[in-house]
Amino acid sequence: MLSRRGRWWLVAAALAAVLGGSLAAVRVELSGGATAAQATTMSGHSPTVDVQRDPWYGMALFDSDVRFDAGAPVSHPPNVQAAAAILVDPDTGRILFQMNAHRELPPASTIKLLTALVALINFDPHRTVTATPGALTQAWDESKMGLHPGDRLNVEELLTGMLMVSANDAATVLAVDTVGMERFVATMNAQAAELGLRDTHATSPVGLDDPHMYSSAYDLAVLASIDTKEFPLFDSIVASQYTVLPASALHPAFYLGNINLLLNMYPATVGIKTGYTENAGGCLVAEAVRGGHRLISVILNANYVYSQSRRLLDWGFTQFGLPAQYPSPSPSASPKPQH
Q: Which of 64, 213, 230, 302 shows the greatest Cβ crowding within 10 Å of its Cβ?
């Protein structure tokens, strides 16, 4: 894996035959002091493989130095039953709690935090996108907002469906019907590399199970921090419990209820993203604000992700002297759609 110390530049040149005689150079800044050869071989994964492809060229990346560091040990850490978890204070960069925070795990639909970042960086929210049949091939049990071929929605509307109801059709249209799936996913991986997210690799914008699709609690906390801090549109979408995209000449009406149950279970919650697949289990990235303090939690591959997230966030606020609101929460089962 790449060290976060130092900076090195990778310049990848494309063969002229691929771009019809033109030669494109892709420059990507990666955090770390490893050589390019080491980056390719460590952990059996190459964080640069996608950015060497021509289709990535021309897409923008977001540069950020968001990092989280462990604080002083706590005397009574919470009991979290999950494959991995983390609780961070994004305003100070402090880790309040972590468990297997860098373990590579299936992220399910929490990978849409990265999908959203690529879309927000590269597309005007008012840009109209026409849904094509090739983008609407989702299985019956995937989460969808109900798009049909020929529907024309703007990027903001597609992001609303993707983030509120975890709509795989919206996420796929955002990729396929803008710059193409290969180019979009390559940009997702280039963006992860740019941010130094060495535990993350995407194979689609939706997060369905794939051996090469993975992320970590730490990386998802970084993405959540960037999405919420830098993009007010993202913030407003994930905080909404219900919204209607009114019918127009471009598309029918869409009635969207946020599937993040924590918005109702824990009043301090202001987002962010759920996820579930058979391999990933229950996943939840959550943000809450109390007493002027903002916390982000990530729980991966767990049962009762809502109750556990509520308990973890509530414990975090007690570290700032705030009273516990839910010392003994009742478990609430995680939803199980194919996000």
A: 213
